[in-house]
């Protein structure tokens, strides 16, 4: 009898556990049914992603892999390779393919989009970009737009604004590079925008015309020196003025050592014996003439003329 009663107690315990488990299951089924009906009744909720998916996206990761989409887009995008001869090549490349990343890759997470962009860099170009971003712990955690800005800075035009403005004057069809009218017009438009001609102030235009006018053979060394001077001032974030570049030009002309230092950097031609003799004779003639004229024949040097800034503003 004792065994029978013990067996009965065990069976009753099992039945009670089954009943409780059944109640829990029924409650879960009812809850799921209610949620399903709620989603069906509300189009907004029906179209929204699940709670788990939203949570995953908020953390920057997705539960569903976009590897296939990334692979498809990677096959469509050509590799980008930086070239020194084409300083604006990345600007043109991203301008052509940016919509592929943003529209065709709309379902990608920010990290996946950045990975896809950096994956388009050719090996040496990739290494150069990585070296420039050493302060960033994980370059793939940077947003797509910020990565584009960084790439544009690293692989963009490194020429100073002054050099780009002077380069506008070198555009000419006589060079034979722009036989197509459309190509010529596009080049002019790109150069004007890149040189920011629309933002030029009065001082900018003054310096621009000043440098343009130094076109004699004797001005070549001075022009190179003054362009370097303008670049150094520009890098400091300061403005080059017309009076400032005039003073620097006069300083260049008055300092022989500085002047000769910036002349064409090449060895002086070796004079032949005959030319050296002729030069000696000419030098003796000049000395004789100066003795005949005497000290009274010396002419006084003209007074230094200073530029008048007030006339520029008229």
Give the structure's gist in a few sentences.
By secondary structure, this protein is mainly α.
Keywords:
single chain; 314 residues; mainly alpha; 16 helices; 0% strand; DUF7083
Could you give the topology of this structure?
Blueprint: H1 2-41, H2 43-47, H3 51-58, H4 67-76, H5 89-104, H6 110-119, H7 123-132, H8 144-155, H9 161-168, H10 181-194, H11 202-213, H12 220-235, H13 242-254, H14 256-261, H15 273-293, H16 309-312
Helix pairs in contact: 5-8, 9-10, 12-13
Uncertain regions spanning at least 5 consecutive residues: 43-64, 262-281, 296-302
Helix count, per DSSP?
16
Give the total of domains: 4
Mean pLDDT metric: 74
Distance between the termini: 126 Å
For the report, how would you describe the main beta sheet? none
Estimated helix fraction? 55-70%
Shape: elongated
Would you report the number of β strands? 0
Order of helices and strands: HHHHHHHHHHHHHHHH
- How large a portion of the residues is in β-strands, by DSSP E? under 5%
Round the Cα radius of gyration to an integer and report it. Answer: 39 Å
Q: Classify the secondary structure makeup into a structural class.
A: mainly alpha
């Amino acid at each position: 009898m004792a065994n029978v009663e013990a067996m009965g107690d065990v069976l009753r315990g099992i039945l009670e556990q089954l009943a409780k488990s059944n109640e829990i299951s029924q409650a879960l089924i009812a809850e799921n049914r209610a949620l399903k009906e709620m989603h069906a009744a509300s189009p907004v909720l029906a179209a929204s992603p699940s709670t788990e998916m939203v949570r995953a996206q908020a953390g920057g990761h997705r539960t569903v892999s976009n590897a296939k989409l990334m692979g498809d887009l990677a096959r469509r995008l050509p590799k980008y390779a930086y070239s020194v001869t084409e300083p604006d090549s990345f600007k043109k490349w991203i301008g052509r393919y940016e919509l592929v990343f943003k529209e065709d890759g709309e379902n990608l997470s920010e990290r996946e989009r950045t990975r896809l962009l950096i994956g388009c860099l050719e090996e040496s170009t990739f290494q150069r970009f990585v070296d420039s971003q050493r302060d960033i712990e994980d370059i793939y955690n940077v947003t797509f737009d910020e990565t584009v800005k960084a790439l544009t800075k690293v692989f963009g035009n490194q020429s100073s604004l002054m050099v780009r403005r002077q380069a506008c004057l070198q555009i000419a069809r006589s060079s034979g590079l722009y036989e197509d009218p459309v190509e010529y017009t596009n080049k002019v438009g790109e150069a004007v925008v890149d040189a920011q001609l629309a933002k030029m102030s009065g001082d900018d235009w003054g310096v621009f015309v000043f440098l343009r006018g130094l076109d004699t053979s004797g001005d070549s060394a001075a022009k190179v020196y003054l362009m370097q001077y303008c670049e150094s001032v520009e890098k400091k974030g300061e403005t080059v003025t017309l009076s400032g570049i005039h003073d620097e030009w006069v300083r260049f002309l008055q300092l022989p050592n500085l002047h000769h230092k910036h002349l064409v950097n090449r060895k002086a031609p070796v004079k032949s014996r005959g030319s050296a003799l002729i030069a000696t004779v000419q030098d003796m003639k000049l000395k004789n003439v100066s003795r005949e004229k005497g000290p009274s024949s010396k002419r006084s040097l003209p007074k230094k003329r200073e530029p008048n800034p007030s006339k520029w503003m008229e």
